[in-house]
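In the previous chapter we treated chains in isolation. Here, by contrast, the input contains two separate entities that must be folded as one system, with a combined length of 593 residues.
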Amino acid sequence: MTAKDIMSRDVRTVAEDATVAAAARLMHDAPHGALPVIAADGKVVGMIDRVTLLRLCLPKYAEDIGDLAFLPPDFTAFEARIENIAHVPVRDVMRPCDVCAAEDTPLVELAALMVLKRVEDVPVLRSERVVGIVGLQDIVDEIVWPHLKHGEEK
Amino acid sequence: MSGNAQPIAALVIFLGAYALIITERLHRTVVALLGAALVLVLRVVSQRAAFAFVDWNTIFLLFGMMVIVGITRRTGLFQWLAIKSAKAARAEPLRMIVMFSIFTAVMSAFLDNVTTVLLIAPVTLVIADALAISPVPFLIAEILASNIGGTATLIGDPPNIMIGSASGLGFMSFVIHLTPVIILVFVAYLASLRFFFGKSMAVSEHARASIYAFDEAKAITDWPLLRKSLAVLALTLVGFFAHEALRLEPATIALAGAALLLVISGADLEQTVLHDIEWPTLLFFVGLFVLVAGLVDTGVIHAISRPLVAGAERSVPLTSIALLWASAALSAVVDNIPFVATVNPMLLDVARRFAGSAGDVRAVMHGPQMLPLWWSLALGACLGGNATLIGASANVVIAGVAERNGYRIAFVEFLKYGIPVVIESLLICTAYIYLRYLR
């Protein structure tokens, strides 16, 4: 099986000069948690996902401290940041599209990519344009679960 | 390579490497390794001689402490200490700057300066955010405090470690000779804090209350590991104080502590290897020592040290004071580690001259003629790093952390604090060296 057999062709994308708020709104309704970022000429220039959104809400040093358990439950100092990021253009915060697949990429390779690179959604590209997207959930639903279910019934 | 070409090659390679490091076009470790490779390939010095010259005491001391601190850090101990300090200061900004400075200085005396500031910076930033004030005054104070504190002991700063190796001066010698003056320098520095940051920092009662709401007990993520780490830290410290009596070198103590902690903590070795041991730093030292080996072995150092030897013969007091201020001035603008790596062999030349042709260099090394020179070098090279934002690694690293979090510490702004602090430090050191050693 290849990516083409399992990918979802209904891909939500976001323009590179759209705002983070717009991207969040698109992600809110989308079946997949990552949006390919598209330039004016239609080519994919990056990806923006939910982890990126979350990272934007936290100050950089929060990642350095690691364990923030000592903060009081009513700590609101970080919330001001969330409003500030609404107008940031997606192009400034997207990550490069370094994990992507072609339509004939074998599913095994996709699964390995997701595990190794820790991404949950892999865009499927043809000539640098998005034609589909494969999510972690898709692979689990279509491949992993049916086999496990079969094993359970035996 | 012919005999005449070797010294020139050694010098050219060294200066070229230095220039590349200063311009930051390549990572300094890459430069050092490249330079070392050139020195060896061109047979400026034999590999055997070069590797014999590498100061493994410095490298393993750094390595051992990196392991111990790296494992201890995972317990959240440093977050706990920082929050406790903030609360002890009643969350008042000026008091907190003083508390954090003391905390940073004391830690820097025993841990690497860069590690110390990296441990305290994130919590400083959280606290500043909670109080809705700029963290920049805190970060500047922490930079200055770390460089001062690091000068106090043999293990506090790499230049001191290297000087200890070259001179054979032990941990207790540094405590007896440098700790007193550093305490004076630090007290003067604390007084300056009031002058620098006294006014302006007003914080609301509500904001201060939020700091009290921080629960430092939750900062500790692993109590058993904490107990083990503290035990090993304490043991290692005792080991450092006693190392001369035990007839062990500092690196041995550090290595023993690291090995012990690795065993009893069951720490994941891969984690430690990947995240705690700063391989680029260690390899930088290896490369650097090979480069300096080239300079020493080919006689370049001997040629350059002639003025220093002549000056020391003529007047130890004048040469010491000159060495103090010159080391500080140079340390302010260039990395003090290569600087000290090159001056150490020069001071060895001075010692050999004092010992005379048949004399015992070891007897002279810790004698009244050499001590002021060693201490002047240590004080100048370490304290000089406070003058500019690029003067020491801790400065550069914190500037980077600040920048990544959206706060820019301007080079010129830092000078306003750094230069006065260095001048005040050096004046105290000059008086101390003169009064204690030169009268």
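Chain B has a mean pLDDT of 92. Residues 179 and 412 of chain B are 30 Å apart (CA to CA). Compare these points with the single-chain example from earlier in the chapter.
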